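To: structure desk
From: M.T.
Subject: fold request, one chain
Message: Could you run this one when you get a chance? Sequence is below, nothing fancy, just the single chain.
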Amino acid sequence: MIAMTQHNYDVVIVGGGAAGLSAALVLGRARRKVAVIDAGAPRNAPAAHMQGFLSRDGMPPADFLKVGREEVTGYGVEIIENTVSEIEPGFAVHLADGSVAHAHRILVTTGVTDDLPAIPGARERWGRDLLHCPYCHGWEVRDQTLGVLGTHPGAVMHALLIRQWSDDVIFFTHTADVSPQEREQLAARGIRIADGEVVRLVVDDDRLTGVELAAGTVVPRTAVFIRPRNVPHPDGLLAGLNVDLDAEGFAVVDRDGRTSAPGVYAAGNVVDPRGSVITAAGAASAAAMAINADLVRTH
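Reply: Done. Structure tokens follow.
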């Protein structure tokens, strides 16, 4: 039997994106012994640039994470490239390589997964010219021929927002049931409606050029927005710690990121799937301050 390597920390942060690294920065500067465990699969990896983060607007996500890692390791934070397989109450954090990290507090910042429709081309164009957030990508595709896919109950509102960035927007009903009132709202904003199921995204020379409907019609578009269904990562870590989850499976926390399980905190998209990079980072920073105060009171 191979003996497992064991390490002790004040705080183990599961997830090394903007939220996890922001928390690590606060805790490292507070002279806490911290480990950030990251599986290396950031949600925004397909995107060429990250927008809306003050002083880092337009920065490639990989560069942002590289700089963030350099900053936190300068304060003694350890970055562990691995996957957490289980967290035992107490807390023993089991990693995929068999090692175990022990911590007084846990912060989960594992984010979400975007559940995309089974439309040919959707996964390949995701984060490139199949986009989700108008505040993240709208400026870059302003005044272009835009589309919005009706795959979510909030798709019509999504289209109304997208109209802010272009006067040529088409709403593809696809699988959405669009009410007469919603059709009036779209028309009032100058948004045209294309009824029928979308069968594929048309790509030429590695660029989106159109949306093909089941009837065979191809509607020229240079970018398409979609509001995907956001789902928690299927790792079961929070559920295994008996953390209260909402109806969609996201962690329920107080304003400081405390979950219902003592010693377990959560921040970022694992709590709020609609949060942007900067809001996720801010929430995690606040959670880190609460964790440090918690440790001062109890250790």
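Reply (cont.): The first strand starts at residue 6 and ends at 14. Let me know if you need anything else for the meeting.
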